[in-house]
Design a protein that fits this description.
Length: 225
Amino acid sequence: MVNKGDGVKRSYDSRLRDARAEATRLAIVAAAGRLFAERGYAATSIEEIAAAASVGRATVFTSVGGKPQLLKGAYRLAVRGPANANTPLGQQARSRRISAEADAHKLLAGYAGVMVEVGRRLAPLYEAVRAAAHADPEARELWQLITEVRRTAASGIVRRLAERRALLHGLDRQSASDILWVLNDPALYQLLVTQRRWTQRRFRSWLTHSMQTQLLQPPDPTARK
């Protein structure tokens, strides 16, 4: 006789195993990200990552892969954040709300806020990827992908600004995307917050102002009257 509860139990056990495997994977990726940022990509070994994540060397390979996969995973986790590790940044609820914002100035203020949060998580690892790209072909490939993704994200924001007829007069979309691509670079966070000791609040205010003044028509002073 078949126990009808067996199927439920197996399903529960499977979900539990999957959850544990995902937790292990995230722990490994997070440990790799910390070590890459602290020591550099080339100087960090799989054994050190395994020890930092409290797993065996073989588990690193079966859960994530070798160092190139660890670097990609660490970068992805830093961009998305641990709370949304499996959801691309642009598909997260906050990003969707910002993209739907009707007011172009508020849209860029929200986008700048997201860039500050991402910069806080990402800036140290970003520099490690940049350095690794000079010596490692797979790291170079990741760096090129990162650069393209940032440019695509900038173009998407500019398209929304253009749809709202908010772009500065005489500024074409390609030039606007170039400007925003420069301003969404996490290296700015590293330079101004990490190195020059700006507060995050000051950096966010500067970044918001820079985006708005470089890309948008000035607010109409008569609009509130």
